[in-house]
UniProtKB/TrEMBL annotation:
CDD domains in UniProt: crotonase-like
Family under the similarity heading: Belongs to the enoyl-CoA hydratase/isomerase family.
Protein name (Swiss-Prot/TrEMBL): Enoyl-CoA hydratase
Protein's organism: Mycobacterium paragordonae
InterPro entries: ClpP/crotonase-like_dom_sf, Enoyl-CoA_hydra/iso, Enoyl-CoA_hydra_C
Pfam families in alphabetical order: ECH_1
Top-level lineage group: Bacteria
């Protein structure tokens, strides 16, 4: 895929067991081009099979997190309608795939949000396991304001996180939600003063990176499974996950630490 070097990129770096992903197109509020979405998919796919990773951190460059998919870059023309069926063919392998990977990867995913989290950018933050936002940040689902229906998981994520009434306010009325309200509603993990955001996120990343990675990943999988399962089905899934987690070195370390009355030193194995 061709790429204009000035049109943004998704940068990645390693910090021990932390994979840091930065959406870097600050001049356009970090809106995502098709090229950038492809980069996200590649990075998350590779991370899913990297046993040295313990946690993933996603942030935006500059003053905003992400203002969603760049429809001008996606469609190339403001005047020409997409070919019939084009979105049905393409979106599942682009924007939707990013949300699926964040939601299903058996690593904890943390987003830190400043400024705007809009559309796909909002849903990316909501699909993460923990989103910490500056208290002056804004979450917005502007789909109907633009004349089209929601995508990238909005209709699945919002009702489960905040209930139908509030989901309708965001999706049908296009209400913008401040980070403080988002935290009160349970839409995100936490809202903090802007100067405290980086330190708060780093403390959370350190805690997750020092945890029993396999057990955390299996717990995440079980939570997600339970959203569409019965109690009996969920407990059966828990048993299979328990069987797996009890075979890890971190399980043995956790028991040893408990017996010796000390803090565990998990290695993610």
């Amino acid at each position: 895929m061709s790429h204009d070097a000035d049109a943004g990129t998704v940068a990645a770096s390693r910090d021990g067991g932390v994979l840091r992903i930065v959406i870097d197109r600050a001049a356009s509020r970090n809106s995502l081009t098709p090229y950038m979405i492809g980069q996200l998919i590649e990075l998350l796919t590779d991370a899913a099979t990297d046993d040295s990773l313990r946690v993933i951190h996603i942030s935006g460059a500059g003053h905003d997190f992400c203002s969603g998919a760049d429809w001008v870059a996606t469609n190339n023309s403001r005047d020409e309608r997409p070919r019939a069926g084009a979105l049905v063919r393409r979106v599942p392998h682009a924007a939707h795939r990013v949300i699926e990977l964040v939601h299903t990867i058996q690593l904890p995913v943390v987003c830190s949000v400043r400024g705007w989290a809009v559309g796909m950018g909002c849903n990316l933050a909501l699909a993460a396991d923990f989103t910490v936002a500056a208290d002056d940040a804004t979450f917005w689902e502007p789909f109907v304001d633009r004349g089209f229906s929601p995508d990238s998981g909005a209709t699945w994520l919002l009702p489960r996180l905040i209930g139908l009434a509030r989901a309708r306010r965001m999706l049908l009325l296009g209400e913008k939600v401040r980070a403080t309200d988002a935290a009160d509603w349970g839409l995100i993990h936490q809202a903090v003063a802007p100067p405290e955001l980086d330190d708060t996120v780093d403390a959370l990343l350190a805690r997750l990176a020092g945890g029993p990675t396999a057990a955390i990943g299996l717990a995440k999988q079980a939570i997600n499974y339970a959203t569409h399962a019965t109690l009996s089905q969920s407990m059966t899934q828990e048993l299979f996950n328990l069987e797996l987690s009890c075979r890890t070195g971190d399980f043995k370390e956790g028991l040893d630490a408990f017996r010796q009355r000390r803090g565990p030193e998990f290695r993610g194995r």
